[in-house]
Amino acid sequence: MTPVSKRTVLAAMAALPASAWLVPAAARADIEVNVNRADVQPLPIAIPGFTGTRGADIAGVISADLQRSGLFRPLDPASFVEHDLTVAIQPRFPAWQQINAQALVNGQVTASDARLQVDFRLWDVFAEKQLLGLQFASTPENWRRVAHKISDAIYEQLTGEKGYFDTRIVFVAEKGGRGGRTKTLAIMDQDGANPSYLTDGAATIMTPRFSSNSQEITYMELRADGSKIYLLNLDTARRESLGDFKGMVFAPRFSPDGSKVAFSVERGGNSDIYVMDLRNRATTRLTVDPSIDTSPSYSPDGTKIAFNSDRSGTPQLYIMGADGSNPHRISFGNGRYNTPVWSPTGEFIAFTKQVGGQFSIGVVRPDGTDERILTTSYLDESPAWAPNGRVLVFTRESPGGQRKLWTVDITGRTQQPIPYPGAASDAAWSPLLN
Amino acid sequence: MTRREIQPAMIGSVLLHVTVAVLLMISWSFTRNLKVGEVVPVTIVTHAPAEPKPAEQAPVEQQAQAPEPQPQAPPPPPPPKPTPAPPKPIPPPPKPVPPAPTPKPIPKVEPKPAPPPKPQPPQPQPKAQAKPQKSLDLDALSASISSMAKPATKAPSAATRGPAQAQTSPTPHPTLGAAQSAAAIRGLSDELQRRWNPNCDVEGGRDVKLKVIFTIGEGGQVVGNATAQIIGPVTPVSRAAQGRAVSAVYAAAPFRNLPQEFYGQRITVNFNAQEACSR
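ok -> structure tokens follow
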């Protein structure tokens, strides 16, 4: 082959689509193929009912968890060809390849009076191999948590990210209409199951927030004679007040290590941000500005605080050092920005944005770049992150309707209501349960 | 005298105890109305065995192209299971086969069910032995450039699994044109693209680049295991992506439209999520 003809060949190869290149190796004709396109879709996964008591229920919870994440598409059980799977024998993979399942989950439940044991297997249908096999044990009434733990294990195996299904959401349960509305502190599983109420509704509860490393929450309680910030340990049910302050205290939030609580204090029309060290109850003022500074939220490393201030004329997002140093604005778009919440990964800050009569939930990088609006409606507000930083819970109100909790993923594509039957607002997500 | 000195301390002590008791009562009254969701522990008892028993193979629907004999253990004797498909006689394996120690026989032969239920008479086809490897003929490729440029060149469609394709498997051709080779590779690439489902929506999922290497066997099967290499940082997300890319190769196989000259060839597929996720 002459050099000229080689060049011609190379020119011809360059003219080929990038997806189909022939690159002959020197010694042997290895073929190299570039794949630059894909069939991007939620992963089709088959989750037949587990065998044994509660087996179908457990599979149903797993299926709902994965579907709600937006990353999985559980297949219709009516399409399944192979039945009577057991955990001890490999599935007949062609039967699952035929329905284009990329992954398959099967399991077995063994229950006695006091013990529930659940085995499950996760299979790669086309590679025809087992990816995961675990056995969980708990009490029979705890079957939903077992299901959530299995969901977390599957999610982590197939995405590489930590799951967020074995978690709870603390929120404000609302009853009654405007004027006579009660706001009660409540908690439920992340999928809306097992709601329970932590206060009796005598006082108005606002802004409950989870500690990022324990089952402890802080919230504001509003009474006729003022407001207080409380800490509530969910394991021990002990509640304590941060103390009395001059003025109205609100918007508390834990530092990442749980040793401090930052909050706002309003006096004479001016709000500033303070932080209390829970170990010695020493309080430090972080902002000194005649404007309204509120909604502090720590970065995951605890070195910075995002907050909301109208010092520029309209509410905008700011970041300062955890000691109050170097406050600087990061939002410059149209509209009013509120309720910044730093993601657990540190990558984004979620916020509420109001433009005209519409409210949006959005995210922006801490340097102020890459602002993305995830949701927009009549009233979307109060975002809070799931512990893996991929999903947000927020409050949505439709005209004339109840306030409800919704979730949205970081892409904005998957928005779903949390199936809690009543009105609810102002949610916060727990870390993964132990 | 002593009593006078001790008395204030005692009074203080009593007051202190009373105060603590009152505080405890106050604290109790706060917590009594709190009904906290109970967290019952769930423990991981054990990790399951990595290699469970292989499945009993259901009667395999025969394809037009007779598969290679499978080194597969005969179904263990077993409690007869009702199977939905009508039993079909399975030709006995030509060789006695040792029990497969792993569930995955090599070469992997996928019994893809043919869409029409009508059984196809097996057509004896000249079995192409894996040939000694040839280098791709650049001269031939050069000679056929003009024909490659023609838009009318019929590339294999992505629907290589369609019935018509399956029943008209290409007759081995001793001297394959470069244009056909290029088209066949394009078809392979198309099939992989159709089967690759990267996770673009997790953090770092869009940055993943991978190489998957495998060898093509007779009938376009993947011979042995496809192996994947991560190009760039190894993270949990890139490891999960590795599995998806390998799965895409197996899902796309067998590459029936590949001419037999590719049999025995080693294929390296570069999966680029950066580009795939941005489209």
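The beta strands of chain B are 43-47, 209-216, 222-231, 266-272.
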